[in-house]
Write a structure and sequence with these properties.
CATH topology of the largest domain: Immunoglobulin-like
Number of domains: 2
Low-confidence stretches: 1-18
Shape: elongated
Structural class: mainly beta
Strand content: over 45%
CATH class of the largest domain: Mainly Beta
Length: 178
C-alpha cells in the first residue's frame, strides 16, 4: 500500500473537518456516479473490493461521496454497496512551515508535486491538478483552511491550518510505500 508523506502541505476543501472520513471497499462491481442518485451519469465502474475513501458517513439520497483510491476518481456510490473498514482522522496542527515573507499581503502557496504521478488538490469548490514534477503558486486570503490532497493509488490526506498574511508557504508532495 502507498502512503502519502507531505512536507508542508496545503490544500483547501469545501468538506467539513467536523465530519470524519473513512476507508471502505466496494462489495461488488458498482457504478461510480457524478451525483447522489441513479439519475446522474456513470463515470466508471468500481470493481469489487476496490478501496474507497468516504468523505463522511452522511449519505445523501442513500449515496456516499467517495474517491476510488486506485484511480483517484471522485463520485457517488449507493451505500448498500460499500463496507466501512476504518476511520481516517484529519491531520491537525502545524503541517507546514512558513518559508519567509511574501511579496503579497495575502499568503502565497508554492506547491511542488515531487512524484511521478498526478495529484489533485481541492481549494474551496475548485480542484487544482498537478502533473508529475509540476510546481504552482496559489495566492489566498489569510484564514483557516481545510485541505485535501489525493493521487491514484494513495489514500487521500486532509486537515486544516491557519495561513497568515505576508507569508509564503511551501510544501513538497512525496510518496512513501509501506
Amino acid at each position: 500500500m502507498k502512503t502519502l508523506l507531505f512536507a508542508f502541505i496545503i490544500v483547501i476543501s469545501n468538506f467539513s473537518l467536523n465530519a470524519q472520513s473513512y476507508l471502505g471497499y466496494a462489495t461488488k462491481n458498482v457504478n461510480l456516479r457524478q451525483g447522489p442518485g441513479t439519475n446522474y451519469e456513470i463515470d466508471t465502474v468500481v470493481k469489487q473490493n476496490a478501496q474507497l475513501f468516504l468523505f463522511s458517513l452522511d449519505a445523501e439520497n442513500n449515496f456516499y461521496h467517495v474517491i476510488d483510491v486506485s484511480t483517484n476518481i471522485e463520485g457517488y456510490i449507493h451505500q448498500d454497496f460499500v463496507k466501512i473498514l476504518e476511520e481516517i482522522k484529519a491531520q491537525k496542527g502545524e503541517l507546514f512551515m512558513a518559508d519567509g515573507n511574501s511579496t503579497s499581503e495575502n499568503p502565497e502557496l508554492v506547491i511542488n508535486n515531487n512524484t511521478t504521478i498526478a495529484m489533485t488538490l481541492r481549494i474551496g469548490d475548485e480542484k487544482f491538478y498537478f502533473t508529475p514534477q509540476e510546481s504552482k503558486k496559489i495566492v489566498l486570503t489569510p484564514s483557516e483552511y481545510d485541505f485535501m490532497a489525493s493521487a491514484p493509488g494513495v489514500i487521500p490526506y486532509y486537515g486544516s491550518q491557519y495561513l497568515n498574511s505576508n507569508f509564503r508557504y511551501t510544501w513538497t508532495f512525496i510518496i512513501v510505500e509501506k
